[in-house]
Amino acid sequence: MKYILLDSIRSMQNVWAVFRNCDGAGYDKIFLTWYTPTPPRNDIKKTAIWAENYIDWEYYKDPLEIIRKLKNKWVKIISVELTEDSVNYKKLWKKYENEDICLVLWNEINWVNEKILQISDNIAIIPMKWKKASLNVSVACWIVMYEFVS
Prior knowledge:
- The structure is a single chain.
- The chain has a single domain (2-147), classed as SPOUT methyltransferase, trefoil knot domain (Alpha/beta knot, 3-Layer(aba) Sandwich), CATH 3.40.1280.
- β2, α2 and β3 form a beta-alpha-beta unit.
- The chain has helices at 12-25, 44-48, 63-72, 114-119, 137-147, and strands spanning 2-7, 29-33, 56-60, 76-80, 87-88, 101-106, 122-125.
- The longest helix has 14 residues, at 12-25.
- A seven-stranded parallel beta sheet has the order 3-2-1-6-4-7-5, sandwiched between helices.
- 31% of the residues lie in helices and 22% in strands.
């Protein structure tokens, strides 16, 4: 099983783009947490193009609640963030190719919930070539999620 967890994503367009990405990459479910917008919404149709109807999703106020549930089911938690312990995402796919995974992403303003990083099995980074240290969340999600598609 392949999951995405979006924690505190403000932009509805980014959330709907991730729904569409999940459909394209064959991910099983999206977990939306904290103040991440949830379907149904009229403004989804333009970006998600009905993917919100095909991808299962659940809402949890506290992201740690669903992360703990997933870990109890042996799902590997891979957070996408720039830290001292981050590993190039391309080096992780082989390690987890036969595992159930959940990729965790959040907004750029508040950065990461430190408690999530502490219980993650790995922290992945997308190496950046120039001056910016991050990508739009839906783009970052797309890049990393496709690395883990068998």
